[in-house]
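I can't quite decide. Please look over this sequence plus structure tokens:

:::
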Amino acid sequence: MTDWSGIAYIDIKENTSPFALTAEWFDEAKKYGNYKLVFNLATSTKSGEVSNRFLVLQDFVNDKFRFISNENSLKGQDMKENPMVAACFLLKYSKDGNHITRQLRCQGTITKMSYEEASDYYKKDPLYCQIRSHIYRQGEIVDWNEQKQKYDELVRRVEEGVTLTMPVYQTGYEISPFSFDFYDSAGDQIADRMVFKKNEENGCWDYHRVAA
């Protein structure tokens, strides 16, 4: 990004991959924003009924976005019917006196991680997240008092030394992107955008600048 122009500039080096740019943006956001990366995930049924929600990104590794969810939830059912998804990250932080606003969108296909791989992430989650996965079935009608009793019971068991294992319905998912849309701006600059799309014929990434 230039510091002299009223128009932001995404500097794309020759043969830059969208994965390298994604990693660069994520690293900077975590450095200056000091927060977990959260994204909006859009899913749909085969008939085209769309729903979306915010999730915590567990990892960005091997050119894939990883997250954990209940496979019996609405999004889990959607992804079972239709593995095509869209994800959107909003990265906002301050750097060198500038308010940075970046948006990263991607489209891709969903695959499941192994239970063992997903369980490794589950073990690193805060305790309240682990407890939630045991006492809630996402989207089901619940009784608050009953949930509170279950919560208190699990807290007591953990304090006694019990380790909570990941329920079998908790599932690790990976998004394998086939398109990216990068939006970048600082302060009152006019934003810049770069779009990457995978060329199915040669496996390379085609990219071009588009109006923001």
